[in-house]
Design brief:
It is built from five helices and no strands. Helix 2 crosses helix 4 and helix 2 packs across helix 5. The protein has a single domain, classed as Annexin V, domain 1 (Orthogonal Bundle). By secondary structure, it is mainly alpha-helical. The radius of gyration is 14 Å and the shape is globular.
C-alpha cells in the first residue's frame, strides 16, 4: 500500500510532476503533518519563490485538525497513483527490483 510517507521514494522529476498536479492548498495542509524529510524533498523540488510562499502558507494556517491533514495527504497520494497509472511518474516502494540503472 502506497502512503504519503512513500513519496520520499520519488525521484526529482516524479516529484515535480506530482507538484504540478497537486492542489497547492492540499499540499500546504498535507505537509503540515509530514515528516521533515518529505517537507524538505517537496520544497527542494519547487521554485524558490513557490517554496517560500508554501512555507508561509503553512506557518500562517495555524493549528489544523489531524483528520484534515490525513484527507489532504490521501488526495495527494491518489494523484500520485493516477500519475503512475498513466505512466507519468514511477512509484518506488523501496524494493531492490525497482532500482534504476542509467
Amino acid at each position: 500500500m502506497f502512503t504519503f510517507d512513500d513519496l520520499k521514494g520519488l525521484d526529482n522529476g516524479g516529484m515535480q510532476t506530482l507538484l504540478r498536479s497537486a492542489d497547492k492548498a492540499d499540499l500546504a495542509l498535507a505537509l503540515k503533518g509530514a515528516p521533515e524529510a518529505i517537507r524538505d524533498l517537496v520544497l527542494a523540488n519547487m521554485a524558490e519563490r513557490a517554496a517560500k510562499i508554501l512555507k508561509e502558507d503553512m506557518e500562517n494556517s495555524g493549528p489544523v485538525r489531524l483528520k484534515d491533514v490525513d484527507a489532504a495527504q490521501t488526495r495527494i497520494v491518489t494523484i500520485a497513483k493516477q500519475l503512475a497509472d498513466a505512466g507519468d511518474l514511477m512509484i518506488s516502494m523501496g524494493e531492490d527490483d525497482d532500482e534504476m540503472v542509467f
